[in-house]
Records
---
Amino acid sequence: MVGFHYTLPPEGLAQAFPFHLVLDSSLRIVQVGDVLQRLITTAAVGDAVEDYFVISRPKISWDLDKILTKQNSLFLLSAKDSALHLKGQMMWVEVENVLFFLGSAWGYNPGDLKSLGLKLQDFALHDTTTDFVILQRTSQMALEDTQALTQQVQVKKEQVEKLLQHQEKLTQEAHERAQALEKTLNDLRQTQLHLVQAEKMSALGQLVAGIAHEINNPLAFVSGNLEFLKTDVANLLRFMVLYKAQGQHLSSELETAFYELEFDFLETDLPKLLRSLTTGSDRITEIVDALRNFSRLDESPIKQVNIHDGLDSSLRLLQHRLKGQPARAPIDVKRYYSPSFPSIECFAGQLNQVFMNIIANAIDALESDPNQTSTITITTSQLSSDWIRVEIADNGPGIPLAIQAKIFDPFFTTKSIGKGTGLGMSISRQIVTEQHGGHLYFQTSIQVGTQFFIELPISRG
Amino acid sequence: MYGLINRAIQDMVCEHHGSDVWDIIKTKANIEESRFLVLKSYPDDLTHRLVFAASEVLGLSSGEIMRAFGQYWVEYTGKAGYQDLLEMAGDTLPDFLSNLDELHSRLGVQFPELKPPEFDCEQTDDTTIELHYQSSRQGLAPMVVGLVEGLGNRFDQSVEVTQVEDRQQGDDRDTFHIKYDAE
């Protein structure tokens, strides 16, 4: 670099720095830029600069030595009597013993400068102060754009979220409707099944009741006449014995007849036959009673019923299945009936159907594993002043875990086609829970057995 | 053109004719932007399409629209936040016009894609100014007429603007003869 040889004349400097100050070594004003002079009209040559300005930056007082150490710092001066701020630098000119402040008015927005009465032409052309305030205003507009766009994005986002929520709600509603439809369909199927089964049971009940009634009358003749027959036969035999005792007066023809009659055998066998007939007749009477009790068609739908009678009737009707079979020993039935068991208000015919289903299933389970001693245990108990429980347990193979959850499903069966409808347990649960407000559940253990619990309210109130 | 210009056109149409008309113009001009960004530089073609569509929809010539826009622009820049700056640019119409080129020079420094026009102002007598205008863009002379009229409104001075040189007619530049009331 060759060095600097040229400088501005004082007028040129004043034009390039219309806000400049020149101070002497005692920091008194010796020269003021023309625009600055216009802004601080009272400032005159010889006045102390500290009367008009404070140094905002750097944090020093008006002290020449301190100022000289900060010649490389940006100086911000603030007018004491106005909102004028100056931004610039301090330069000490050794030759002339003066301190130059070269800078410009400063504002954060055009309003700050305008309020001081400044115009564009008050700034030197090289001065970027006005450019800066224009830029600042433009940045502000860009920021407003950004804020508006952000708001638009937010609005769109909220709209999308609302739509998504709406969609989710619709999906949920559709799902709920589908579920409701499925439930309705299931209910309808259940109702239909129940109706079909009820109709079947009703028809069967009527048939059973009809048969029982029809059998009952001739049975009354049989059992009633059997007593007379016993008396008559006893009298006849006694007469025959007496007659035979008069042996020497019997004709040979009567002797032969006695012989062919095997009277001695007849005398001992006939009472046995009559006893057997009586036993058979009693058995028929019991079965007819059981059939009538089971169907309960001769009674009102809801009444106070002794549950033990229902259990006994079911057992009697299943007697043929409880007996020993060629492939297995008889099934032992143990009844632990509570002596203080109350009558309960119920649909007796329906509950009998439940007992019949569960006991029949227990028999099926026991038949599937004929090698052990089979037992069905029926226990009744009163749970509280309002509830009773019937427990029907078997010591069969138990219900495998995989099918436990399906036990009460309609059409679920482990039996071969034609052997079971798969409706028994489903309908039983419906009868217990829906018709009677009770509970039907089970506990099972593999190779130990299964217990079904029927819990019912004593009163339907 | 920067988005500020396009947004000003939008606001002018909405203010004077309603947002429905603006939607029609926008559709006709095949413009999808819902908001013009102030600092974004849009193709000049977009602004030309807007002016052309507005001309068809409003039944005005492009020149009339540009002139109306020039008037609106003075008012709009004030409302858009440049009010203080405009006030610093001059207290009277001649003052302001003499600073017009300076103002555009400073804007050009900050907006590299602005391609600002040049203005040369010549006070011919106490009530007359010759304003010479040169731009790299074509067809904006009517806007200058509106701009000077808008400044007249701003300073509450009636002005009469006559174009005496027209680049479209083969002259080297556009020149406007401005006659205004002396204060």
---
Amino acid sequence: MERERKKKGVGGWLFLVLVLAAYGMTAAIEPEVARQALSFFIKVLRKMLPVLVLVFVLLLAADLLLEPQWIKRNLGRESGIKGWLVAAVGGVLAAGPIYTWYALLRELREKGMRASLAAIFLYSRAVKLPLLPLMIHYFGTAYTLVLCLYLIGFSVVTGVLIRKLEDQEML
Amino acid sequence: MLRHRLERSLKKTARTFVNLLPIIIGMLLLTSLAVVVFPEQISAGLFGGNDALDALIGASVGSVAAGHPLASYLLGGELLKGGVSLIAVTALIVSWVTVGIVQLPAEALMLGLRFAIYRNVIGFFTAIVIAFLCVHTLRLIG
């Protein structure tokens, strides 16, 4: 397990090196594009800092408070409807970019969370509560309501499909 | 006892977080580059008028697009004004937040390659289904 963690850590750094290499190549061909991208990166990173702090706090809380037994009961194989509900509501409430939540989901999966519930969580994140007023502004109330209901419904469909793959040990 | 547990958890969380940082920074850098290299104007000329094909194109654009979901609303709004169908725009908006080709390496690293591929493929096709269902439901309810 420890060796696998280290391997995954190395993968992350390798990924960053590859992205930096892509920037290096872009800077060599189109310096202005690389400059604009870097300035966009700094702007987004500033906005993301509070989310990163939240992720750290949640990771710590998950490690401290969520015992493997609780995970198995509420998000594991025996969790049933409650697990689906916990995952869907958690996904709707989760803020920030999707990849900031991967670590928490990996942590929960290592403690016994089902892959299908991780899929429901990731899908239901499509409902962006803080952005609903903007969506209503652009597309109208009826459209926003119908779309959100379908998104929540299809998060369950995704969960069912991933569960079938999980049960067939294809994951 | 409690202090010892807190210290242990802090160390473990810090280790997890340090492993996560290069992925987050890498993703942000990649997203920023994608946003600059593929400006919004490119996608406007892609749509042709056939609902099924446009939904497929919308879902494809949304899948490879990166950035804040708000950008998908802005782009979707502009495309609607430009005459692109609501089905195509919905497919784009949904796949923007459910499919992440750019995030795929990070998702595969953290949650497993097969899980990431299956989840994204399902997300792509459900975005098209939702687009049709959503628009037809709106027509039904008037």
---
Amino acid sequence: MPIITLPYDDLEKLTGTDKDTIIKRVPMIGADIERIEDESIDIEFFPDRPDLYSVEGVARALRGFLDIETGFREYEVKPYTVEITKDENIDSVRPIFGCAIVRGVKFNSSAIKTLMDLQESLHWGLGRDRKKVSIGVHDLSKVQPPFRYIAADPDYSFVPLDFTEPMTMKEILEKHPKGTRFAHILDGFDMYPLILDANDNVLSFPPIINGTLTMVTEETTDLLVDVTGLSNEVYTALNIVTTALAERGGEIEYVKVVNADGTEDIPLDLSPRVKVLERAEIDGLIGMELPADEIVNQLSRMGFGAKELEDGRIEVQIPRYRADILDNSDIIEDIAVGYGFDKIPAVFPMNATVGKSHMLSDISSDMREIMTGLGYLQVMPFTLTSDRVHFDWMCREKTDDVTYVMHPISEDQTMVRTTILPNLIEILSMNQHRELPQRIFEAGDVVINGKNGLHLAAVSISPQANFTEVRELVDALMRERVVEYEVVESEDPAFMEGRRADIIVNGKKIGVMGELFPQVIVNFGLGQPVVGFEIDLLD
Amino acid sequence: MSSQYNLTSNEKNVLIALENLKDASPDELADKSEMKTETSMQAAFLLEEKGLAQVDETITEIFELTDEGKKYAQEGLPERQIIDAISGPTSMDELKDKFNPAVAGIATGWLRRKGWAGIEKGMIVPTSNAEKGEDEKILEAFAGEAKTFEELGADKKVINDLIKRKLVVKTENKKRKICITSEGKELVVAGITVEEEVAQLTSELLKSGEWKEKKFRPYNIHTAPRPIYGAKIHPYQRLIDEMRRIFLDMGFTEIKGEAVQSSFWNFDSLFQPQDHPAREMQDTFHLSSRSELPLEYKDKVCAVHENGGETGSTGWGGKWSEDIACRNVLRTHTTSLTIKYLADNPEAPVKAFSIDRAYRRETIDPTHTPEFEQLEGVVMDKDMSFSNLLGCLAEFYYRMGFEDIRFRPGYFPYTEPSVEPEVYVDGLGWVELGGAGVFRKEVTAPLGIKYPVLAWGLGVSRLAMLKLGLKDLRQLYHSDIDWLRKSEVCQL
């Protein structure tokens, strides 16, 4: 989740209150304070609220929540003075396009940084790392309208940001740091997106890099915002960026987009979405009856427009920068957050049900009672392990029933175990500085052919450990389980020949026991005899 | 009278023996009391504690010649050997020819220090008649035996010099002398009867009834015992069992399920968008295998993702891919089990819980492990509300031993409203402990779940760190056997 750095001077000015009030109340709108510094505060906002990824957006939300300025925030949008034509070839490459102008913004270096951070957070949060949404912000005074959004030949060249010499788009993807990082988004296309001005100067090569010509500096006042991508989140991002700039004093002006077929679009729409909520739905979800004026008041504090209709329902105006409102429950949550979770009564449901433990838990619990009674300590190792420990060190052949993970994070954890014994011996190897004898067991899950199983295994290490010890142990266990069993010679290479036995129940092998093969003991770095057994508890 | 001291028969024997001894050595005492030296001394110490005897310890310093010292005692110190062998100025080379070079080397230093000779232009020049020094007298005084300071009649500095020259070593000799005190004497004079004491009760003593006549040797109850440790269940298991009991007490049914889950049950059914970052390979253990999608749900889940289906939601937009939903993963949360259970058991009311392992593709460090236990509770019934969810949380955490709980807004993709419960922990303040919410309609409707579902979960291993005072989560899984042995059953 993105962590947003909010400078106090900006935050206090834009919110209209002091930083201590803000620090105290901000967690209650849904945020985690990460760090409190001398000049700024770092806050982690939830990923569903990209409108809070900037100091302007946070200030807007706080003004409502702190009763400084409540209700739906209206932004004046001036008519277009700039047109952009959209080339038909672009529809198969990066079809969704949004664009707007914001004039009269005063920038200092910190405001520029905030704007850059907002873009990056949106690229991550809404854009899935620029794939679905990418944003460009340009100094409008450096270029000449009308503009064109086209699919261009990869050999088209211009000077990208951070470079001084022209490069072709192909070269940018190969050499520019942003190019190499995001080139995968354009894999498989033979034409690349490009935004040009009337003189064929490049504003942007979405979603990779802007031209250096339109770079925003402290002298910039008028901005062109372009957002391109694959989905409707493009428009949400456009709304978030333009309204954030308007919060800083800018005047928004929409841009007309002329499509290849001659139709026209106005991508910027800041008029509210409207939903009507039934009171029963609100009260039912929160679990208490809220008066209509309370609901309206809380919605206003959360930045919505709201009024009670004559039939008692609540009409809600939803700002276009709110990406998280998918459904009524999202609005109702905001009512609850505004009202305060601490004021909602906590009522334990009085519906009667009968509790029941799971059969597998009951089995494991019985095994723990038996094994601790026999002097064995319970351990709970990881179920992820590796071929090396699971098969190689055990001197066992690999089996074909193993679940391997596709992208292991370390070579110690490449697979889910099918047996428990290797884990137990590993624990012994970590405890060589501890007093002997050591006797440990686990009743735990294994995954065989993609399905969970339940095994019980135990090991004992001491200078006197021998077959008789484990033979008696297994006998005691099976007696306690009231299971008739027999033993036959085993061929399990993890155990020593002549000192190993398969455990048979109803003619089927359910496990094995014996003295571990000396090579196994050595493989695990141990220096004393080890005996052990493992059985399937579900067979 | 002797009863007030509660003497063992060993102590009585020693006390009687001491009466006729004066300043006895341990061996003399052992002889007289007819016991082993260790046993009699042990009794003597116990008598000393009771004020009936006194054990005096004197430390004597004993000096002894080293091998080198013995050699020089016979042959003379190197400087003596050389001064005796030369008559006038002699070159170093000549000395080294005549003597062992080591001897010559040692000698020159000492010749100068003792003022017996000087060195001029590489020549040793004798300057005095080299009278026999104190150190040489002492070497002779040893006469090859270990001697005390007094026996040698030596000067401390001279001895120390010889020790520094590694010709003499010093050892300390402890000598103990035991004598009876006046109280001890009184007691003996008053008369002590020594009767045989029984160390161990036997079945013969019981059967014969002899036990009635016998005196049993008392134990010193103040002797610290050797620590022993019983086999036991893992402290983490006790915590898990406690939580299971709380759920069972509250009428919840325990559920279990597969570690291998389709993306459908792990993510899609929970309205997690298919391009959500948590689904990527950075966070999730993907598997190469695939699962069949449940026919009765897959189209509805598809619709709710793409456009909200019949729920009134906008959905996530875009195209929902069956291919992505089929791919198997190691379950990243146990919610994949609860949601499937709810789909399979649509009849209200349902109260269910699970405490089981979840897998995340995390690098192991003290606070992250790629697998960990997750607790999950759900309530599905008519008219369930967020208020009821807060009620469940308050009750659950109270039973877990947290009396102060508060609720903060939270975010989870499949719940709305969502809440993060925080509990107050002395010394730590408010600690976030898990997450909760009411399942979104986008989750329940496609699966045919008609009533609201309240759900909450928490990372049990984090809680274990808090409750067991652990600094490193790995201790739970790669346990130190001594930690397990010493963990206290009633700690929690």
---
Amino acid sequence: MIAPATEARIYKILSDLSAVPQQQIKRGDRLREDLGLDSVSSMELVSMLSEEFSIDVELEEAVRITDVAGLLALAENRIGDA
Amino acid sequence: MLDTAAPPAPVARPSLAALAPPGELDVVEALVDPLDRFCRDRIDPRENDRRKSIPADVLDGLKEMGLFGLSLPESHGGCGLGLWATGSIAAVIARRDRSVATTLGLHLGLGTRGLVRYGSADQQDRYLPRLASGEILAAFATTEPAAGSDLSALRCTLSEVEGALALRGQKCFVTNGGLASLYTVSTRSPGLGGMRKGQTLVLVERGDAGVCVGAEEDKLGLRASSTTMLDFDDVALGAERILGPVGQGAACLQHILAYGRTVMAFGCTGTAHAALAATRNHCSVRVQFGRTLDQLAVVREQLADMEAKLFAIEALVRWAATDESKLEWRSLAAKVLASDLSGEIVDTALQLHGGYGFIEETGIALLARDARITRIFEGANDVLRVHRGLFALTQAPEGPQAARCRDAIGEARARLGTRLLGDHVTLHRLGSLAMLADAATAALQRADHEGTPEARALAARWLRLSMSYALCLGGES
């Protein structure tokens, strides 16, 4: 389970990129349809995540992320690995 | 005064057979000569530029030839031709007048592609027959005052008010805006379809209450084509006007834009062809230092470079148009390099015309003005380079010049790791290298297809030029 503080930091990044207020972002949100992120800003998101938590994400893995739940799962996995 | 009425020296016509999909070559070949004649006899590009419009008889003539239905389905009165054929015809018109080619190309590409691909049977029955005959024209409205390349910033909003849909907002730089009767409009549609930030495409008729078409813009080029703003003041729309899945307009847009930008790229080859033909003609009659310009080695080199660039972009646009499953990324190189290189060709044409290129009489100045926008509209080139860079990360380019790009990707991944995904400067460079690899693949395929010594020589010259572009990008490793 991802730590609440980590989840909040991820939501902060999502909010900065999408301009959706942090409190309104939910696990089930889709990056494009609910947060309005296009393919370029979705990749930017993964880049920001990697910098924030000093983790490395395979590019092939990054392009498969389409929703917040996927992003949280990735972070949980990688931060656990780190 | 220079004799500009002399017949232009021959420039090799694009070999239509190269990369032609089965069944389309015959149709296009049958159209090219009559269309070429029509363009020469009936279209006066400088007069159109001066009057800032296309005469009705020119548009009527194109309608009579069935050109407004080229890419529309046969079941609805169109010709049912694919992108390769549609683009090839647009290129023929662009050789004569880019404004006319833009008007028709926009109708066939961005204007109707959404309806053809995503339209319901009712929508297609209602609009396609009249669009195919040219009775009505189509336009595509997505750019807004605050949303250009960044389509996620759309403000034009489709909302549900007491069970009905209402459209409110403003679109700008709408090509065909003043001529069209049907607009495909991209909107943000918060809440619709259960998506908080979804986008939805809608069909808007010019006569819908609340639609206001702005005045014609005063432009640098393409002055005979129509470009206006559109205002939507709470336009009431029925659900039957929604085009494609609710909330998923952004995904639909990707296909429509890829298709439209490829048609536009074909137009760039027409402009480049016109510039080269005029320059060959000028250089064959203009005498300096006791010889015609085309006997001077420095000039001959520049003419050869122009021809190699034209060869490459003709190959590239046809390569992009022949495989729709790869259109989303192949169209990126086609659009960017066709616009960049046709711009270079026109600039060299102007230079070789000397002072004559700077006056309107020779038509080179018009070509230069018309060409400039192509690097901006249908996706700004710098943005598309970043997109191609992202594609290249997961689908490394293939072909004879792809190793340079793959090495650069490997180096960037090792240096930046995941941060590469947010490093737009590096992605821009990688995208540029990937596009050069795409162009090399297309040029060599064309040379193989044509199988002539001339084609092989032009491909080889393009590869050498391409190397120098890559060196400028630091892709020599």
